[in-house]
Amino acid sequence: MHTFQKKDKTVLTMNPFDKIGKQWMLITSGDEDKANTMTASWGGVGVLWGSDVVYIFVRQSLREGRIPFDISLDRPNKETIAAMLEAERIAKDPNVKHYSDVEEALRELKR
Length: 111
Fold this sequence. Notes:
Blueprint: H1 16-22, E1 25-30, E2 35-40, E3 43-48, E4 51-56, H2 59-64, H3 78-92, H4 102-110
Antiparallel strand pairs: 1-2, 3-4
C-alpha cells in the first residue's frame, strides 16, 4: 500500500499559484484504511500569524454549488471620496512640500 510522504516545501518545483489558479490540485483526507481524494480549483497559500498555510473551500463549495463568498466592490462614502480627491489634488500641487520618504516627513514634523 502506498503511504503519503511529507515533502519539504522549500524544494517544491511547481508554482502553487499556477497549480491552484490555472490547473487543479488534489485534496486527500482520511487514513491508511479509508481515504477520499477530490480535485479542487480554488484555494490559496500564504502566511498566517507567522505560519505557512494552505486553504481551500470544499464543504461550503459543495453545499452551495458556488464559490463560497461574494465578490463585490465596496463603494466609499462621501467623506472618503472627498479625502481621496483632496489627496490627489495635494499630490499634484507643485506648491505643496513633498517628501521622498517617511523619515524625511517625520524629521520635518519634529522641527
